[in-house]
Amino acid sequence: MIIKSIVIIAFILILISLGSALFHLVKHKTQEQSEKTVKALTFRITLSIVLFIFIFIAFATGMFTPHGLGARMHQTPTTVPVK
After folding, report:
1. pLDDT of residue 29
2. Residue 65 — φ and ψ, nearest 5°?
3. Element (H, E) at 82
4. What pLDDT is recorded for position 49?
5. Helices 31-61 and 2-27: crossing angle, nearest 10°?
6. Which of 14, 25, 64, 66 could pair with 58 as two cysteines, CB 3.0-4.6 Å apart?
């Protein structure tokens, strides 16, 4: 449950950073605001990379296991009797 919470918080932070960058890009056209846009986008990219690494490590160590469509694709197929 803690892993899901961390992922959700990271996604929310990514969206907030993206919204902040959009605000600074559209609302203000000065050099200072351009730097704020770059900082917000850099933070978003960094957070996305950290989130990807965290999910990869959690999957590799077994703390996180997929249970959706991807997990069903890797299961052994059941045999169907031929008529």
Report:
1. 75
2. -125, 135
3. none
4. 95
5. 160
6. 64
pLDDT category, 18, cuts 50, 70, 90?
very high
Q: What are the residue boundaries of the structural domains of the chain, listed by start?
A: 2-73
Report which DSSP code applies to 74.
T
Q: What is the pTM of this model?
A: 0.70
Helix/strand/coil for 56 = helix
DSSP conformation letters of 7-47: HHHHHHHHHHHHHHHHHHHHH--SHHHHHHHHHHHHHHHHH
pLDDT attached to residue 75:
61
Residue with tokens 């299961």: 75
What letter represents residue 12's amino acid? I
Task: Compute φ and ψ for 53, nearest 5 degrees.
Answer: -65, -40
